[in-house]
Amino acid sequence: MSNEYKFSVGPWNVHEGADPFGPPCRDSIDNITKFKAFKAIGFDGIQFHDDDVVPEIETKSFTEISTQAKALKKILDDQGLEAEFVAPRLWEDPKGIDGALTANDPAIRQWGIERTKRAVDIGQIMGCNMLVLWLAREGTYIREAKNPINSYQLLVDALNEVLQSNSEVRIVIEPKPNEPVDLAYLPTIGHALAMAHQTCDPTRVGGLIESAHALLAGLDPAEEMGFALQMNKLWGVHLNDQNGLKYDQDKTFGSVNLRSAFNQVRVLELGQYAQSGRYVGFDVKAMRTQPAAHAMRHLENSRDIFLQLVQKVRTFDQALEARCIKERDYEMLELAVMQHLLGN
Ligand SMILES: [Mn+2]
Predict the structure, then answer these.
(1) Where exactly are the structural domains of the chain?
(2) What DSSP string runs through 215-258?
(3) Among 77, 86, 255, 308, which has the minimal tally of Cβ within 10 Å of its Cβ?
C-alpha cells in the first residue's frame, strides 16, 4: 500500500508555531534538513511556494531565480525527492494586500500575472508542470469593495494568460471559502471546475481539494472529491482535519472525524487515485504546544492513519455492503462501518 500511494508535504508544514496571538515557540529548521526528514518518514514529493524555492524572489533577477531553482532541483534529485508543484505566494507580498489577480488596481493585477508566470518558469526548472493557485486574497472583506462579475472575469482572463504563456503548465485551483478574506472567490471545487471550463484550454485546468477547506464551506470532503473525480479533475489533495467551523486548523488527518477520513480514503480508492500517479498531500501542522523534538509527528501520524484507513476500506465486507444496499438496510450498513472502524 505504501508503495502504491505517493505522499507529499510542504516545508511550511513544519513551522515555528507562531499564530496571530503569539510569537514563534520553536526554532526554525532549514529546508534541506526538513527534506531529509520528510524522506526518512516516507514522503517523496515536496510542495513549494515560489519563494520557498527562491527566498526574497521579488528582489531577484530571472538569472538569479533560475540558478537558485536549479541548485534546489539538484538537492532534491540527490535525495530521491521530486517537486510536486510550485504555487505563487501572491498573498504574502504587500502588493497583493487587496488581492492580486482581482485587485482593483490594474498595475497590481499585471504584477500578479507576471509573478504567476514566473512560478510556472520555476516549476519547469524544478521538473514539474503543476501550478497550484490558492486564491487567498482574491475576494473581499466587504462586498461593496469589488464587482464580483468583473472579478470572476478577471480570474478567467488571468488563467488564460498563464495558459497561453506556457503550453505545458497545468493549473490546479485550490478552493477555500474564507480566511484570510471574509468572502473568497472560487469557494468550492464546483466553482473552480466551472471556471476551468471557461478557460481557453479546460483540459489543462483542474482542482485540488483540501479536507478542511471543504469543511469550512459546510461541505463533505469525500463528496467534493467524488465530484472532481467524476470529471477526472482531482489533480491533488491536501488531507487534514478540522474541528468545526473555526479558523483553518490543518489538524492531523483523521484526528477529529475518523469516519469522514475513512470516506475520503474510500472515495480515493473508488476513483483509483493511487493509479493516477498523483500525490496524496497532507496539509497538516503541528500543534503550537509541541516541543521541537515532536514537531514532525503530525506528518508521520497522518500518513500512518491514511494507510491504516486504506486497509480498513479494503477489508470492509463487500458482500454485507451489497446486501445492505439491496435491502435498503442503511442502519445495518452504518453499524457495520462503525463496527469496522472500532475494530470489531
Ligand atoms: Mn488548511
Answers:
(1) 6-316
(2) HHTT--HHHHHHHHHHTT-EEEEEE-B--SSSS---BPTTSS-H
(3) 77
215 Cβ contact partners less than 8 Å away, ≥ 6 residues apart: 221, 242, 245
Q: What is the pLDDT of residues 43-52, one digit of tens each?
A: 999 999 999 9
Contacts for 308 with CB less than 8 Å, ≥ 6 apart: none
pLDDT tens track for 294-337: 989 999 999 999 999 999 999 999 999 999 999 999 999 999 99
Cell of 229: 473525480
- Classified by CATH at the fold level, domain 6-316 comes out as TIM Barrel (3.20.20)
Could you please report the per-residue DSSP string of 116-140?
HHHHHHHHHHTT--EEEEE-TTSEE
Q: Which residues contact 174 (CB under 8 A, 6 or more apart)?
A: 132, 133, 134, 135, 192, 207, 208, 209, 210, 213, 236, 238
Output the CA 321–ligand 1 centroid distance in Å: 33
Q: Which residues are catalytic?
A: 49, 52
Distance 247 CA to ligand 1 centre (A): 9
How far apart are the CA of 64 and the centre of ligand 1, in A? 31
Grid cell at residue 335 = 453499524
Q: What would the grid cell of residue 73 be?
A: 532541483
Centroid of ligand 1 to alpha carbon of 41 (angstroms): 21
